[in-house]
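Sample 1 of the test manifest.
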Amino acid sequence: MKGYHLGELEELILLTVGVLGKEAYGVSVLEEIKNQTGRKVNISAIHTVLNRLEEKGFLESKMGGATEERGGRRKRLFNISAHGRTAITEIRSLRNKLYDQIPPLALDFSYGN
Amino acid sequence: METKRHHTPPKWADRFLEFYCNPKKLEQIQGDAYEIFYMNLEEKGLSFAKFRFWIHVLSFFRWSNIKRTKTNYYSSTTTAMFKNYLKIGWRNLLKQKSTTFISVFGLACAIACCLVAYLFIEGIWMKGMLQPNKNEIYQLTYTVEEADGKVTYGTVAEPISELLQGEFPEIKAHTRIKNGFPILVYQNESYNQRVIYVDPDYMDMFSYKMHHGYPEALNEPNQVILTYELSEKLFGETHPIGQEITLVRNGEEGFYKVGGVLEKLNDLDMFNFDMLVNFSNIEEINPAVSLKESWDSGVWTFIQLDQNTSLGELQGGFEKIRESQNQINPERPYLRLELVPYTDLVYKIGEIKQGVRDFLGIGPQILLGAIGLFVLILAVFNYINISILMASKRLKEIGIRKVIGSRRSQLILQFLSENMIVCSLAILVGCLLAVFILVPGFNQIASKSLKMDFFNDPYIWLFLIGLAGFITLASGFYPALFVSGFKPVAILKGNQKLGGKSILTTILLTFQFTLAIISIVASIAFIQTNYLNENRDWGYDNTDKIIVNIPDSTGYNTLVDRLSAVGSVQEVSGSHHYVGNWLDESEVIFQDQKVEVDLLRAEANYPELLGLRLKNGRFLDQASATDLSENILVNERFMADLGLTFPIEEKVYLDSMPYQVVGVVEDFHTEFFQRPMIPTVIRATDDNSYSFLTLKMSSGSAMSSMELVKESWRESFPKGLFEGKLQENVFELALRDVRGVQKILLFSAILAVLLSAMGLYGLVSLNMNSRIKDFCVRKVFGAETGDLSGKLFKRYLISWGIAALVGGGLAIVLVSAFLNSFFAYHSGVGVLPLGFSILGLLFVIGLTVGSQLWKVIKANPSDILKAE
């Protein structure tokens, strides 16, 4: 496979799921994104992306953790799969690699000589 | 938390979510939505929370979350099961190769027969249905008052067609169509071909595929379009376009060029012809016809309308035309001038006189349909019998399936899907059989041109699909229902016995035997009848005579002179008709009795020349004036019908002229044996306007002198078409038909016997497999072979006995009716066909059962009993 194709929102959500550890499900992901980035994402968009990531094998899920607010309904709890972990590591290193190759700004005097 | 209990998310939104959401995802989605609702409720209040809930429910309404239809939703399991059914079915079929072969082969034969019958019937009822413009085309008809009520005719006055085009803009195209039989001359060879004269619009209205040239060729009056067959016949390999041919019509020659050649015509085409000729050619021939005459002569007139034309208005407009027609021709006023849709023409065959089609031929349709149905029933019964028996081997499988939780409907589906495999195979094989064997064979026998046209004919697909569905259900539904109805407990405990003893199997078998007997009787009786008829005395001496036609009475005398000069010709005699073809019908009045008679008008020496045998009195004499004007000969039937004995003192009246009967001849067959003997009157004439000349040749020279006769004939009529034939061949066409029917019947009888024997074989062998241990144990204990075979034969003998009684009885009734409809003279259903069919069937049964019995007799009990 030639790299991992992840959209911007997909990457964001994948990372958030990683951050949340074992408590990642639709609403918690929504809240976490809001808190960390201040960005409001629609809940249905989050569901769609979570499902898609699971289909692609980046996430695993199980049902569990019913609460009263949910009317006794279980959550679908997501967890990063090994494949997902390699994917974010890969993406990160790719980004870093690219970032490191950006030429320094002209006004950076450290390269002045 | 108090507030939470008092408020719930909006009910309708919640319901909507539950309605559309895929049940697999509902829990998480609904849970999240609730959670957010309560979060919003705490932070922003009730109305905002409710509003957001709605928004969320709507935003969840996405393709991936929506519930699919039920079947689709469960589809993963159903298709998997279905695949499993097919796989198991396929394996089962492979496991039982011989029985599968019996089922597939039987059904394939049946399908092939049904296809032939279907094609034949389709060819009659679906005429013209493949025309793309069929819904826009109409035929003009008119109705007049006649002695026996209102009669509708299909041929309207010629000028009407042209009036129409001018008067009504909604008529897109119109054509007159007239049949003609001009003589076609090409390279000094004459041919008799069917021509239709049409207007150039014809090619626009009716679409034909062109083999050479283009449809507009007909726009030129001197160009003609040929059918592929005629072009082949005339030109063979040479390119037909531009070839010159001559048509002789009423003695006048017309020169034409070939402008196009059509692809082979289909049996579904409405018009039968060999050549299309521009209509203007028959108008120009007689430019001087009076107005009245042209209004008198009728032609078929077809028009093509714009799609949206209101028929009612158009009919109203016809009133004017009708009136002008009635002014010109007041003796035969048109009551109505009507349009008949092209697609209805076939269904109105009886209603329109002189229509495009006036003959349906119900008899052959019934015969073929009945044969198709017979064979289909036989094959389906075979299949039912075999599949019930096969299912009995799978009782355990059924029991286990049921215990595991398979529903009855699923089991039925399983069996039906297995059936479907067999039927699809059978359809495939059946189509191949039909295309390569049965249809060509039938075409040859019946001189038809049936064709399986899978690409152009949508109806055949409908028929095949319908047939497949019918066979699948008819043959599979009962076994499936029967087998799936067992109680699993009974099956698994081994109490459920199912086998060859089922009453239904016996009934079906008996029914098959009955059908087999009927078809054997039909074919043998038919063959017997044919044999008798071919050797039947025709009532005269049919050897050494040649009949030639006389196209033009002016050349009669020279023809007689020329032909008399031919060495082997002993005597010649002219006649208006000839014996062996139809005669004039007339009516004789004797005292107060009226009799319908056939009237043979000929030269006085004709009866003697033909070899009619004199019973009483004398023949007529050409030299005697009274014989020519006052005396007649009659046949025996005439005397018998009138209850007379020769001599008759009183005169008989023919066309209100008195005649004296001077001689009685023995009955002779003027027409084929389909027609009973008719009272016949022979009258001598000397008006020289004869249509036929019969030549008496010296013994044995008739065949060899034909060429000489033809040459002399050509000298008299260089442009005419020579139609000479031997007197002994006059029934040739009819005999060929009858032989064709005989072949079809024989074929169906053989097929019926074969199928029932194969069904029986499958039944016995399956039965034998399940009871072979039983037999072996018996053998070990010393049972005699006779004892064993008696046990095995008994059931089938009972079936045979019942079938012999029922089938024999039915055959006597049905076959006699069939023969009666076919022949006036037949053998009837005698001892020969009955005995042969019943004993023949017994022989076949004995052979089939015996072959299986042989297995038991040869079997070594220790091998079989040790096997398990």
